[in-house]
Design the sequence.
């Protein structure tokens, strides 16, 4: 496959999820500010099936938000709409509106292939993979990684047993999308010569253990074998990527792991003929301020690209803006918090692996009701130098968007009414706290 056979994602791209589809313009404004500094970042509006279901929106709403923002600002660069974390069971609803697909196959990692495939077929897949790549048995050196890896046949088999089913599932999803969305490569050509008219990401981040450099190398080999022109891949990283708050873990360990993954990608592109712009994608990447420095240094060291995916951070800026507006805006923000407190188990359940909330450190609703808008905003805003900042308060509100969705037009009308102050917070958050430390400073 060659790069002129499919859409190209820019070197740097930014996933700007938006729960309620109201902040497309201020989100894009942050990327315009970056462009004014000479930095090209491709905007990607991402939203998952779960978020659409909870809020009552559709992929067409996200497409409209993106198109409207681009038209309003006269954006002349590329932009995409991401069907985030999709599988075969829900991809069809995204195909018409999306041109970026995050193929989530983490649930298939570690499952014995024989569980979902005929035993002989599964064994054949693994054996064929081992035979094809046994040329790497022995010492394997990768530019940019100090360690030399000693590869054995048993190791390749173990990796295939663990990951090949997930990669094959990604292949099934990819080919399903191509069959519906692809366009003939030449006028009059038959359906077998379809080209992908979209960006493909393979996501393996929602699993228990991070992939090792050797595992990543052979995962990329399997992706190439499946004919998936992946332009981004989302691995699992060491540490916790809790929603809306800073990274929790060994920053030096993460830095080493990130650099190794970047090096493996560069090596695998040459070895397996993968797209030349293949890059890492970091999920739940908003607000991970402590690792932005190591990421920025690695990007410069390897001249590498990056896709960074955010979502809930914009929803929290909406709440901050409503609180700062005072009046009924502040009342709505307080009601969302009170509702979240009373329905905490329900709201936190789907996110239990990516939040750590100390309930004893959450203020009671009666206390919050006494706060003015500035106090509410200072407790919620991710400013670790502020004495009022409460990481537990922020995480709870991060998962509380269902409460706002249930308010219906009352909430959406408030977003329109206080559009200016919300937009100011949204743009500042994305540009100052995320884009600058990652790509500019």
Sequence:
């Amino acid at each position: 496959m060659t790069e002129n056979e499919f859409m190209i994602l820019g070197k740097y791209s930014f996933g700007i999820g938006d729960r309620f589809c109201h902040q497309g313009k201020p989100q894009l404004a942050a990327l315009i500010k970056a462009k004014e500094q000479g930095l090209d970042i491709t905007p990607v509006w991402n939203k998952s099936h779960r978020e659409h279901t909870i809020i009552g929106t559709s992929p067409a709403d996200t497409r409209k938000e993106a198109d409207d923002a681009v038209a309003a600002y006269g954006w002349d660069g590329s932009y995409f709409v991401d069907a985030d974390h999709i599988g075969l069971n829900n991809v069809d609803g995204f195909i018409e509106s999306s041109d970026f697909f995050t193929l989530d196959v983490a649930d298939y990692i570690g499952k014995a292939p024989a569980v979902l495939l005929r035993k002989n077929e599964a064994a054949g897949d693994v054996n064929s993979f081992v035979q094809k790549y046994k040329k790497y048995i022995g010492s394997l050196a990768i530019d940019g990684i100090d360690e030399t890896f000693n590869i054995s046949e048993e190791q390749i088999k173990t990796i295939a047993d663990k990951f090949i089913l997930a990669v094959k599932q990604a292949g099934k999803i990819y080919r399903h999308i191509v069959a519906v969305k692809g366009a003939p490569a030449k006028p009059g050509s038959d359906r077998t010569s379809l080209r992908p008219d979209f960006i493909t990401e393979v996501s393996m981040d929602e699993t228990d253990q991070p992939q090792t450099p050797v595992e990543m190398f052979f995962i990329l080999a399997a992706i190439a074998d499946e004919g998936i022109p992946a332009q981004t891949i989302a691995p699992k990283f060491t540490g916790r990527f809790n929603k809306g708050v800073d990274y929790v873990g060994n920053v030096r360990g993460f830095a080493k792991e990130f650099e190794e993954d970047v090096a493996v990608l560069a090596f695998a592109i040459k070895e397996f003929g993968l797209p030349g712009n293949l890059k890492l994608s970091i999920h739940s990447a908003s607000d991970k301020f402590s690792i932005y420095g190591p990421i920025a240094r690695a990007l410069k060291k390897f001249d590498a690209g990056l896709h960074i995916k955010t979502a809930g951070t914009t929803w929290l800026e909406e709440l901050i803006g409503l609180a700062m507006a005072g009046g009924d805006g502040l009342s709505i923000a307080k009601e969302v918090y009170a509702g979240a407190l009373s329905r905490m188990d329900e709201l936190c359940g789907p996110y239990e692996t990516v939040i750590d909330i100390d309930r004893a450190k959450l203020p009671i609703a009666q206390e919050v009701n006494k706060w003015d808008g500035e106090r509410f905003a200072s407790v919620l805003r991710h400013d670790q130098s502020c004495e009022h900042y409460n990481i537990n308060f922020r995480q709870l509100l991060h998962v509380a968007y269902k409460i706002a969705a249930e308010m219906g037009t009352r909430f959406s009308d408030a977003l329109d009414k206080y559009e200016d102050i919300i937009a100011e917070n949204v743009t500042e958050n994305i540009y100052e706290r995320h884009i600058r430390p990652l790509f500019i400073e």
Remarks:
- The two ends are 36 Å apart (CA to CA).
- The CA atoms of residues 68 and 74 lie 10 Å apart.
- The first helix runs from residue 24 to 36.
